[in-house]
């Protein structure tokens, strides 16, 4: 712990914590400060002008990162018959019906995304108290309840990131790895912010996108100049 503290202190030593950097400079800085012995995740945090306690200010959705997340995503699929075969062929890690439900009820939740064909929701619905708190409950609004399970699997494994605003108005997301190129990270960040702006709820008042920060798993954080992001629809953020 002390070694980690010293390393982080050193990382902050030549960093002006009050500075607001253009996106490319922020990415370059965070990559340079990601000095852990593993490939750190680059994390984005957005402060939004919403109060998610009100239904018309909830921000939730998905963003497809063009360069992926750098993370291996294990996908479980609820399907039967031809759709189960389709899911297996598409690369699902776990495919099942009642047997998969029993596995989950027994505490074996060894997957990162759960997808279901619409006809399986009678089975999946009983798992809400288990999957819901973990953010794994299939939802048609997130594209995880769909007759096209193959596409959903492809998206999940190819960089589809789910987001949901926390009670304090913050959205967190991993947008790649420190090993990614600067250009790849910039593209992913712009894609994510575009998705956030498109998910702007009807009840949001005043400035919607208030603050953007970037960090790595073990490194310091920096603020990003919102105007430098250049994501589609960012002009409508305020």
Query: Stretches where pLDDT falls below 50 for ≥5 residues?
Result: 234-238
Question: How many DSSP E strands?
Answer: 10
Q: State Rg.
A: 19 Å
Overall shape: it is: globular
Provide the β-strand percentage band. Answer: 15-25%
Largest sheet: 5 strands, mixed
Order the strands across the largest sheet as they lie in space.
1-10-9-2-8
Determine the structural class based on helices, strands and strand pairing.
alpha/beta
Order of helices and strands: HEHEEEHEHEHHHEEHEE
Search tags:
238 residues; alpha/beta; 5-stranded mixed sheet; globular; disordered C terminus
Helix-strand layout with pairing:
Elements: H1 2-13, E1 20-21, H2 23-33, E2 41-48, E3 60-64, E4 75-78, H3 81-89, E5 94-96, H4 98-105, E6 113-116, H5 121-124, H6 128-131, H7 149-158, E7 160-164, E8 170-177, H8 182-198, E9 209-216, E10 221-224
Parallel strand pairs: 1-10, 4-5, 4-6
Antiparallel strand pairs: 2-8, 2-9, 3-7, 9-10
Helix pairs in contact: 2-8
Describe this structure in words.
With 238 residues, the protein is α/β, with parallel strands linked by helices. It has helices at 2-13, 23-33, 81-89, 98-105, 121-124, 128-131, 149-158, 182-198, and strands at 20-21, 41-48, 60-64, 75-78, 94-96, 113-116, 160-164, 170-177, 209-216, 221-224. Strands 1-10-9-2-8 form a five-stranded mixed sheet, with helices on one face. Strands 5-4-6 form a three-stranded parallel sheet, with helices on both faces. It has a two-stranded antiparallel ribbon with strand order 3-7. It is globular and about 55 Å long. The termini are far apart.
């Amino acid at each position: 712990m002390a070694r980690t503290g010293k390393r982080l202190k050193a990382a902050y030593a030549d960093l002006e914590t009050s500075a607001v950097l253009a996106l490319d400079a922020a990415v370059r800085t965070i990559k340079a400060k990601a000095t852990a012995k593993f490939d750190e995740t680059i994390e984005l945090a957005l402060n939004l002008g919403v109060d998610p306690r009100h239904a018309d200010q909830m921000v939730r959705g998905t963003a497809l990162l063009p360069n992926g997340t750098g993370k291996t995503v294990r996908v479980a699929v609820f399907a039967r018959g031809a759709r189960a075969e389709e899911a297996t062929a598409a690369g699902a890690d776990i495919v099942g019906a009642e047997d998969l439900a029993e596995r989950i009820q027994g505490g074996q939740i060894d997957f990162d995304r759960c997808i279901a064909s619409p006809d399986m929701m009678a089975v999946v619905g009983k798992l809400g108290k288990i999957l819901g708190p973990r953010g794994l409950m299939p939802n048609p609004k997130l594209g995880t309840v769909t007759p096209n399970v193959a596409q959903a699997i492809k998206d999940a494994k190819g960089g589809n990131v789910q987001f949901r605003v926390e009670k304090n108005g913050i959205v967190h997301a991993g947008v790649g790895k420190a090993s990614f190129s600067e250009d790849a990270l910039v593209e992913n960040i712009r894609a994510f912010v575009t998705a956030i702006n498109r998910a702007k709820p009807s009840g949001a008042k005043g400035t919607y996108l208030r603050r953007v920060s970037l960090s790595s798993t073990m490194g310091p954080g920096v603020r990003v100049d919102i105007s430098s992001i250049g994501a589609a629809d960012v002009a409508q953020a305020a």
